[in-house]
Predict the structure.
Amino acid sequence: MKKNLWSGVLFGIGLVAFIDETIFHQILHWHHFYDKATTAAGLVSDGFFHAFSWFFTVGGLFMVADIRRRKVWQVKKWAAGVLLGAGGFQLYDGIIQHKLMRLHQIRYHVNLLPYDMVWHITSVLMLLIGLVLIIHSAKKTGVVSEHAQ
């Protein structure tokens, strides 16, 4: 059932975006989603980013409710999806939004290398663990990896 994986991916994207927005935008004040304009524009962009993260989180949870109701929830595949979604979004954020589009950086007026390294290494680790979980769950259920649900 592909909903196990996809509900996890949606939840993982929403969760990591929510953590990013809450910790780095609101608590630490390191950046806004869009830092190329005024602080007010940055705050509005944070609001849209926050709504985006909750849209994905709630969508993923509705899918989990559906697969649990039908008694087909496979926790390992769901957890793999969470890690793939979180790691994929964080890698996208760090490479596309931070470096290519330059919407914002993790921090300003500091050496970015250690921050970027932690950001990217964490992303890749989440992706790798997610892939290992998918492969392990596919072997356990006898489903080949290209058809892993």
